[in-house]
């Protein structure tokens, strides 16, 4: 039976530049093998730190490389959130929420919509003297909704941060997860919160969505003191991150392979997004859904009478993530188009739609 992996959070194998990365790894080993096969700095492979620092106009010391963005978030949460609270978007990335809870923090849920986190809700929390240690959000295209924080809300959030921190109470940090930024295939790029704040916010990203998730290369951009503390925590946790993967990414970018690869990834993701939206319009017009401009995910709201879990269970060969797995009602589904070829997506959506219509008919009978 054919499988339609709309529940996946990784790209299909044909989007991975396997041969190029194999050659990059061989080149990195030939040039720097003794170093990258040994223990290194907790903050990661210095040449890649320097490259990323040049992208963002910071000192390499402020760049901390981690084994994927989730591990970076966990290390940062251990430093900032333990015993305190973090404000997060709802619905939100379950792995992000798990990392914050795993660090001993509590969560303050802030609603989101098609323009991202609703910053007026954060303002109301601050007015009520709620004192989170961290506001943590996906800047664009993140799981599960694929929404992008609007420019107006970015400016409002930074204004709130500035006003709060001028009061002289415990500092409020803002962490922007921008892991899907390089996958934008439509619309204009918005300035990162990090750029709008002149580098006073915390920044997180990863090469998992843009190059390959198995390389496990994420990064943080942090102020001096926090970078030192997170690097020290990384060293005590795993001595040093996986330097071979980081050196491979450095070679991949350095030889000019990133931009051609991103062009192919963006074109493929856009075609798959378009195929999914067209199939939803054709087969399940009773539902409503988002229109992401990048990333992997479409957020679908089913007719009120439906339970997304039951729909997925009945749709043979189809996986998807129901809202109940993401902290919201089961009327929602997260569908990923990243792992399914564009010409196969319509059949997968048709199966979901048939299951939905069968359940609706049963309820009406």
Concise description?
The strands form three sheets. The chain has an eight-stranded mixed β-sheet, sandwiched between helices. Strands 10-11-14-13 form a four-stranded antiparallel β-sheet, covered by helices on one side. The chain has helices at 18-36, 46-56, 69-80, 94-102, 119-127, 151-165, 193-196, 224-238, 243-254, 258-283, 308-314, 345-364, and strands at 4-5, 63-66, 85-90, 106-113, 116-117, 134-138, 173-177, 202-206, 218-221, 288-289, 297-301, 318-319, 321-322, 332-336. The chain is α/β, with parallel strands linked by helices and 365 residues long.
Features:
365 residues; alpha/beta; Aspartate Aminotransferase, domain 2; globular
List the SSEs and their pairings.
Elements (H helix, E strand, L loop, with lengths): L3 E2 L12 H19 L9 H11 L6 E4 L2 H12 L4 E6 L3 H9 L3 E8 L2 E2 L1 H9 L6 E5 L12 H15 L7 E5 L15 H4 L5 E5 L11 E4 L2 H15 L4 H12 L3 H26 L4 E2 L7 E5 L6 H7 L3 E2 L1 E2 L9 E5 L8 H20 L1
Helix pairs in contact: 1-9, 3-4, 3-8, 5-6, 10-12, 11-12
